[in-house]
From TrEMBL:
Exostosin GT47 domain sequence ranges: 227-565
Organism superkingdom: Eukaryota
Record-annotated membrane-spanning stretches: 21-39
Organism this protein belongs to: Salix dunnii
Taxonomic placement: Eukaryota, Viridiplantae, Streptophyta, Embryophyta, Tracheophyta
Ranges of compositional bias, category Basic residues: 172-187
Subcellular location(s) per record: Golgi apparatus membrane
Region feature (Disordered): 139-224
Single Gene Ontology MF annotation: glycosyltransferase activity
Bias kind Basic and acidic residues: ranges: 145-171, 188-214
Keywords: Glycosyltransferase, Golgi apparatus, Membrane, Signal-anchor, Transferase, Transmembrane, Transmembrane helix
Key word Transmembrane present: yes
Membrane topology designation: Single-pass type II membrane protein
Protein name: Exostosin GT47 domain-containing protein
Amino acid sequence: MHDQEGLMKKVPILKRGCNKFWYFTVVFLLWFFLLYFFFHSGSKLYKKDDFLLKHHYDDFIDAHESSFGGVNRNSNEETGHAAADSIMDMDTKATANPVDNFFTGGDWDKYLREVSNAEKESKPENQIRLTENEARSINKVFGEGNREESGRTRSAARENQVKKPIELPREARRRRVKKPGREKRVKKQVDHSLRREDKVLEEVIEQPNKEDQISRQTNSDSHPESCAGRYIYIHNLPSRFNGDLFRHCQSLNEWSNMCPYLSNFGFGPRLKNSERTLSNTGWYDTNQFMLEIIFHHKMKQYRCLTNDSSLASAIFVPYYSGLDVARYLWNADKKMKDYYSRHLVKWLRESPEWKRLWGRDHFMVAGRITWDFRRLTNNNNDWGNQLMILPESRNMTVLTIESSPWNNNDFAVPYPTYFHPSGDNEVFQWQNRMRRLKRQFLFSFAGGPRPDLPDSIRSDIIEQCQAAREKCLLLECITGSSNCYEPVNLMKMFQSSTFCLQPPGDSYTRRSTFDSILAGCIPVFFHPGSSYAQYLWHFPRDYTKYSVFIPANKIKDEKVSIERTLSRIPIQKVWAMREEVIKLIPGMVYADPSHGLETLKDAFDLTIDGVLERVEKIKMDIKAGKNFSEDIEEYTWKKILFGTEGKHEWDHFFDRSKMIMY
């Protein structure tokens, strides 16, 4: 014992060596057991993930493909195509066109291919990472699309009357129960002729996460009393009237690719606020002809939707008429101008909803000016199609960005602007910012001359603006310049001006009117058809509260000075007019449909109010035995504005025999 202790004292390294030996032994055993449990549980995790993946895929396809089956099936019956062209097994390959996947839920087919490739080329942990990313991407798949209800489904809906939505957690919404009578899975026919532009098309496909909440169920059961007289039913049109146009977005315009403008509910790409001209959120590069897409998305979120058309006060027809006609306005295939519009009214005539009031409770959106749909001749070479002069269309309420002053079935609604707020606070903050701005210029004008139109006053306005020097800011739109198409440039100019000149252009109205109001700039009109006879549901009847009117003939013939006219307005009056303009801002914008406004009404809300009021009046007139054929449309603008058909100082502006497009 003493010898051993002495040895340890003489050689202390031995003691330390024994301790280190046991230390490394224990650590080794711990790592061994950790690695064993890690790989053992990991193999079970992969099996579990494979099971969940298959389960999610089946549920997703059952829910989404069943909703498209009716559309494709009925669409092919209408067009006479063989059923085999549209009825396919979903186990086949996904379409090569990513926009087709956007409508059929085919992103999961793409996902399965990626997972299969990953299993061959990557380690197991890569598979887990792909699964998590793709599972999150389900939120980006667009809604449920269009769905053609069978007779059995419609009768079941009527028996149940208003269908109550089931409130589920976000994750649970993706796993929907398969509906009876939807045994066949349907897939769109692939159009391999389309040029693939993956980067652009991905922007169209990837909608915000809230889009998967949009459905055609009734959204109002929690407050049924608030929806009394406000229920709206959406027709399930065959996809050739809307979805197919969306799908083939590359062919909507001869000169530019429209696909980016269809993204974000039709708002287009998000705008950056690098120059601090805009607010940080809610701003998009929105095309002025995207109203049909925007309105359709807004309708899907309308809180008083019903699946039972017999309960509906009005019926919405989601036909993308503007996107349709734009394809044929300039190209050689002009015989197609009227093809889809005539097939639409034929489809509507055969629906039971139409026969109830012969379409007088139906409404639709035409996202272009009314003159694109009012060709009076049968010559296809003349401008536009005949959609709005068809007998069926004349029974409906048609919403356009510019209406006809001589017809009583189309109503003007605001052009889409660049601002699409997602809540009241965004609107309030923007309004307060516009109130605080110091405006450097008395007036401004953004536009170009119209030398081919002899009665146009645009050249006179440009000359007066240039002569005013530091009091007028001119943004001249000339060929080859993109300044007028940059949202930041326009908004910066309007924000620096007290008054914004809005003369007629190619037609009576301008999108610039709404962009300038958004900037708190007081509009100056030169023709009553540019605003006063147009946006009756959105602007005050007393136009002097929010605008200045200088008759165009006084500029052209009497050489009235715009600078002197505007300078003579008292400053108190200017402040009051600007405040009125800023108060109009909520009603000029189309709010984000995934959020919406809480206490304010946007342009969509005001439009729905107007449609429901008009339809209710029509129903009362029918009960009273009114003969609608006795209506004289020639003085529609005068009856609406002033309630009379007598002489008025504005008659020369609306002389139909001298109709001029400025």
